[in-house]
Amino acid sequence: MSDQRKIYLEDIPLDEAWRRFTEALAATGLWRPFPGEDVPVVSALGRVTAAPVWARISSPHYHAAAMDGYAVRAADTIGATETAPLRLALGPQAVYVDTGDPLPPWANAVIPIEHVQPGPDTIEIMAPVPPWRNVRPMGEDMVATELVLPANHTLVPVDLGAIAGCGHTHVQVRRRPRVAVIPTGTELVPPGVPLRPGDIIEYNSLVLAAQVESWGGQATRWPIIPDDYDRLRAAVQEAVATHDLVLINAGSSAGSEDFTARVVADLGQLLVHGVAVRPGHPVILGMICSRPVIGVPGYPVSAALTGEIFVEPLLARWLGRPPQARPTVQATLTRKVLSPLGDDEYLRVT
Asked: Whole-model pTM?
């Protein structure tokens, strides 16, 4: 059986594994951000801009009242006091405006309604107002031609308002990477079915797909593939034809029914089988038909960690943003840890 498989676990340092992977991706033009696509602003939440967003119009695009009151010329209000109020004629000297209304072309200030004594043809004021008081001048928020958002920016709710407010209905965003998640194992059963001894509930694909979605990708979960070389080979061939990245979980070790490395080697190029990290040691990295394929270990913690170490940085590269930074704190371990020499060990802590 070992002669048939001819696949053996290695212990490649993480940096070297990444070097092999990125060189293979670069050789096929895949170690760079994806091109942009035009999407409606209403559908762009969480997407990453593929080009800068420049304001088409100013916001506001006119001088707007910032309060309910009367639009006036500031010069006409000079000298008004409580003991010597001024009267301004409605029409030529004062016009009622609601918040957001455009000012008349001759007006440059607004007197709040609570500071005015209105009459039938005049208003009485008891204090002057300086120019542009209680006015939102044209372009206060954004000026036409101004840079509103840079490229490679992940859009949050307020960004959508800014894009629409400066005159856009669509925005250029990176295409979401399509990721196939293929769970394998004869012992696996879907959640919710009656369990027999030896059955294992398959939920790694749920975790991996959720990771992909949270990192900006578009995940497709395959039905469970039993430990059958031909069926796994056919599933992988189908997946690489329609996806940007294929995750095979599990079958990445060197057991008699671990076919992932053999499938990758037969269909394409096996770059790495075994990385010096724990958990997650039996990771597989390969290329099939110019598409990256990652063999993800079956142990749940290893699977999730493989997503963080290899999948997230790759999706980040495709989306044009930096990989997620890990928070760092100083702490003291409460028990001794014996780590294998030469391996990077990831420990879960509380």
From this structure: 0.83
Torsion of CA 132, 143, 175, 322, to 10 degrees: -80
- Asked if residues 52 and 145 have their Cβ atoms less than 8 Å apart, the reply is no
Phi, psi of 308 (to 5 degrees): -70, -40
d(CA 281, CA 236): 22
Q: What is the pLDDT of residues 82-127, one digit of tens each?
A: 999 999 999 999 999 999 999 999 999 999 999 999 999 999 999 9
Element containing residue 232 per DSSP (H, E): helix 229-242
Cα(211)–Cα(349) distance, rounded to whole angstroms?
20
Instruction: Outline where 107-156 has alpha helix (H).
Output: none
Cis peptide before 234 (omega within 30 of 0): no
182 Cβ contact partners less than 8 Å away, ≥ 6 residues apart? 205, 222, 225, 232, 235, 236, 239, 246, 247, 248, 249
CA 120 to chain centre: 58
Strand locations in 2-57 (E)? 36-40, 53-54
